[in-house]
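Can you make up a protein sequence with its backbone structure tokens?

===
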Amino acid sequence: MNILIALLHLTLLFPGTLKTAPDTKFYELRIYYCNPGRLDALVQRFTNHTTKLFEKHGMENVGYWLPVDNKENALYYVLAFPNKEARDASWKSFIADPVWQEVAKKSEEGGKIISSITSIFMNAADFSPAINPSKASKDRLFELRTYYCQPGKLPDLLTRFRDHTLKLFEKQGMQNIAYWTTIEPDGKQAKLVYILAHQNQEAATKAWEGFRADPVWIKAKTESEKNGSIVEKVESVMMNPLPFSTIR
């Protein structure tokens, strides 16, 4: 008890003395595109079986969402692993699991569910908040954003987020959920991928309007782009959490 009190006093006297350990997990963002009329079957399979089997094979369920404008019948989710080798071993054992094989077979009696899969490997950015289960009294609206940078400009973008953007998001009522950089093949420049939470679409629209008009943001953006434009393009997907998601 005395040690805990001493640590608390140290933290109060010297903020930042006790730093959170860096997040060294290996993350995977997976997007499943379903055949027409089969998205509900996929959601039921995840609800009743898949997430539990993931845990059985050492995968950490981070979050599950459906796009608001889901014209592609997609389901988005993020898993975490200790490292790439653990990821590969977990997927291998999961696919070979007789329980999973039976579940997959039975769930596709009405037709093949998935038409294609996108898999994106990621590392946590050094400024990403700790990713913990979080559930509000009412389900929130989530926004998945992907930034493509001009050649060689990713470090400048990360610096801007680290020094300015996260704080300015919070100022406007947006919650920072997680930030990652992608692991690209052939040494290509990584992308910045992150997730924000909003109370609803109205709150999201208001927050973005306030952010873009904020003189502090305008100054930070201008100063960061003295040597040229940083961002080539941004992709945004608004998403609703699924009932079994640990982040809602």
Remarks:
- The longest strand covers residues 114-124.
- The chain is about 40% helix and 30% strand.
